[in-house]
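QA checklist item 7 of 12: single-chain prediction sanity check.
[x] sequence parsed
[x] length recorded as 187
[x] structure emitted
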Amino acid sequence: MKTVSYHRHRFHPDIIKQAIWLYFRFTMSYRDVEELLAERGIDVSYETVRRWVLKFGIDYAQRIKKRRPPPHTEWFLDEVFVKIGGKPMYLWRAVDGEGEVLDILVQKRRNKRAALKLLRKLMQNQGIPPTKVVTDKLRSYGAALRDLRVEHLHDTTNRLNNRAESSHGHCQFKLLLRLGLRINYSK
């Protein structure tokens, strides 16, 4: 991985890191970060913060991802209906056994194809195959797991999927803040 160079930047690297951290950690707008830094005596425009986020944000995220411990091998999958920009969509989520969000996928449909897309994405990105996949009783999950030949890992026991169900609210709130769109919650 290439090293991040702050050469030819007016501000100290610690200020740049702090601004990017504030933006991502607290889902703030660029103007909010500008205002917070101004309260600390640092005169930075929101446009400068935006450029820093675009230039350094991906590198920071990749470094954090590399240092993160491997995910738990139990996966909890669930989907929830949301309206994004007035259009009905499905927010598919995967959470590991410790409550960490593994992946999020927004799709127009709630069918086998969408479930298969989420599962393939998970298998490819996680690097560790699951020991157990817990879902609700939606048949799309069973069909997708059969296609991947891992249906023996599927568990649909009642109330076992609460881990994924309970993490929807936090995710939808962050999605609302990031996209600046109105989301109507319903299930």
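[x] summary fact logged: The first helix runs from residue 13 to 25.
[ ] second reviewer sign-off
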